[in-house]
UniProtKB/TrEMBL annotation:
Keyword Transmembrane helix carried by entry: yes
Domain G-protein coupled receptors family 1 profile: 52-296
Membrane-spanning intervals of the chain: 41-61, 73-94, 109-130, 151-172, 196-218, 239-263, 283-299
Chief localisation class: membrane
Localization annotation: Membrane
Keywords: Membrane, Transmembrane, Transmembrane helix
InterPro entries in alphabetical order: GPCR_Rhodpsn_7TM
Naturally occurring in which organism (per UniProt): Zonotrichia albicollis
Gene3D superfamilies: Rhodopsin 7-helix transmembrane proteins
Entry protein name: G-protein coupled receptors family 1 profile domain-containing protein
One GO location term (cellular component): membrane
């Protein structure tokens, strides 16, 4: 249980006695970089992601009220809500290069809700890929019948997500809940098992399932009545683009999570450069949530059609206004003559 005693750990920029000008310069450079990355994220990605998310919610709710209900839209609606929640949690990086200060208990609660959104978005994407896969091959199995009931499937995903998030909250640690600490969404003072469980169930297993879905999609021969693979990919470009984006961004983040675990097991706090890369990986993770919402808005057919309708309406109004202004200008010139 010695690895569970994490009272010794701290951030390199907050704890090391910097005795040389080179060390001080390294800290200043690291903090400047993370500050600029944070400002770019807040200025560009957050507004874009939130606007895209709100537009998606409006479109899906409108289609639902018009009884245009599809299981894929329900899954993507759930995915959208999860990513919007992730964006709101990303506001915790506003204080960087500094960190939030909170008690152990408050930081554990914050971590619980963040992990709930993190696991939820990952497993909803796997469910979406599985639904598209079964739609293409249409096997007469109980699994295929289950995917035709998306509410039941989402209930199962939420149950698994809650259990994993609760497990992670326990692995943050159970001691000194009243003490104030520097808080990240994945707390630095969490037990090493926290990062290991998060890697296995938040990236390892989902990535394996995602890879299996793609292998079956590419390798298995579809029925003669099914559309070709290219047509299938073109019909659902948003899901496959999100899958690739999520894998790349979360791969980087989870590599850094494991690297931080290795430092904990070696009982070392690392360097300011390690701290910089970990903070950058966290912001990249949040950028993925914003990018996924933009992809849904512009590549998912119901959303794309609504965006095109709005653009066409704006184009129609502009020539109409110009057409009304021309006679008025002509009358003014003829009156002056």
């Amino acid at each position: 249980m010695t690895s569970h005693n994490m009272t010794w750990i701290s951030y390199p920029s907050k704890s090391q006695p910097f005795n040389s000008p080179e060390e001080i310069e390294a800290v200043i450079t690291s903090q400047n970089i993370i500050s600029r990355v944070m400002h770019c994220y807040i200025a560009f990605f957050v507004p874009t992601g939130l606007i895209a998310g709100i537009c998606i919610l409006i479109i899906f709710i409108k289609n639902h009220l018009q009884n245009n209900r599809e299981s894929l839209d329900l899954l993507l609606l759930h995915f959208t809500v999860s990513n919007i929640i992730m964006i709101f949690f990303s506001f915790t990086v506003i204080s960087r290069p500094d960190y939030l200060t909170a008690t152990h208990l408050a930081c554990s609660v914050l971590s619980f809700f963040f992990n709930f959104g993190y696991f939820n978005s990952q497993y909803v994407l796997i469910l979406t890929l599985l639904t598209l896969l079964l739609e293409r091959f249409r096997p007469s199995t109980a699994l295929c019948q289950a995917t035709q009931r998306p509410i039941l499937c989402l209930g199962l995903v939420l149950t698994c997500t809650f259990c994993l998030s609760l497990t992670e909250a326990v692995l943050v640690g159970t001691d000194d809940y009243h003490l104030e600490v520097y808080c990240q969404l994945d707390p630095l003072f969490a037990w090493p098992a926290y990062e290991i469980v998060k890697f296995i169930f938040g990236f390892g297993i989902p990535s394996l399932l995602q890879t299996l879905c793609f292998i079956v999609l590419w390798a298995k021969e579809a029925p003669a009545a099914a559309p070709s693979l290219q047509q299938h990919m073109r019909a659902y470009p948003a899901v496959y683009a999100i899958s690739a984006t999520m894998f790349i961004c979360r791969l980087f983040y989870n590599i850094m999570i494991l690297f931080r675990t290795a430092l904990k097991l070696q009982r070392t706090i690392g360097t300011t450069k390690n701290e910089l890369v970990m903070n950058t990986a966290e912001i990249v993770l949040f950028c993925e949530s914003c990018a996924s919402l933009v992809v849904i808005l512009f590549f998912h057919k119901p959303c794309k059609d609504e965006v095109l309708k709005v653009i066409q309406r704006c184009r129609r109004r502009t020539p109409a206004n110009n057409h009304l202004e021309i006679p008025e200008a002509a009358l003014t010139q003829s009156g002056s003559q």
